[in-house]
Amino acid sequence: MAFMTRELAQEIVNRTMAILDWNINVMNEEGIIIGSGDANRIGDVHEGAILVLRHKKKIEVREEREGMKPGINFPIFFNEQIVGVVGITGDPREVQAFAELIKMSAELVLEQSFLLEQFQWKQRIQNDLVNQLITGTGGAAVVEKAGSLGINLDLPRVALVLEGGTEPDEQNLLRSIEFELDKGDVLGVTPSNEIILFKVVGKGLKIPRRFRSGPVGVGGVTESSRDWRNSYEQGKLALAIGRRMRPGLPVYSYEEYRIEALLLRMIEQDPDIERFSYYLPLLEHAEGVETLDAYLQENGELNRTAERLFIHRNTLRYRLDKIFQWTGKDPRKIRDLMELYVAKLFHESH
After folding, report:
1. Tens digits of per-residue pLDDT, 275-309?
2. Which fold has domain 271-348?
3. Which Gene3D superfamilies does the entry mention (predicted)?
């Protein structure tokens, strides 16, 4: 990176002058002012900075001279080399107490900028890696990218799929997730702004806190990168099914919705709407739909279903009779209940 850019220099100036009343100048490695509280001085050669760069130490200027005003000038170090100079204008006796803090602040901003650039570079590579693996493209380049990041592609992992947001929010979310990752975890973003984490599976699945705010879809376990695509698709499917069936939960696992996923795939292969026409009359009765939902959630247990709906058992029996009357399917019979469930899945997915 170009260590001390004009933008970074001005950021150092603006941050510092927001809390101090003295003018701040930042000079590059040639002694030219590239950031200042006095815009008229930008582009000028700062003689004090030239002295700092020559002697590699702090220089105090007590009297105004050509190209210099009274103040204190410090070298800015990064990785043990001087990358610029920061100066505070004013009587050295008055600004001495703040000078060291200004130097530390400048070096901290520089380090943060470097770390952010490193994070963004790593994230770009990981994005490419993840997108190539879930689309089945990339070939040998995928292994090379993984190697550049020290990633072993053949560890057991599961895909966690989270819908992203706007780009600035997404970058903040990625950085916060990064602090919770374990060795071997791979974080990426798809072109459709999905945030995908291929999480290494150890003794148990530890979902990062920022993912648990969800909703997040969890795919099946993969033994190698060849199966990353399957786990990703499973996570997406679990998220889609779970949000329709049980909205409001933070996590939807493919293991919980494996049967529903299988049924939907079978339906999509032969989407004959007429075969589920018996379900259409029920859709005209919100109370019937609500009753069937609760009955399914409580696994057909009458007492718990009645409690869930805040109704008497006799009222529940009456409603189940009405569902039978509307659909020709008796929810109290396992085969009929299965047919109602499959029809429900079909209509919720179309």
Report:
1. 789 999 999 999 999 999 999 989 999 999 999 99
2. Arc Repressor Mutant, subunit A (1.10.10)
3. PucR C-terminal helix-turn-helix domain (1.10.10.2840)
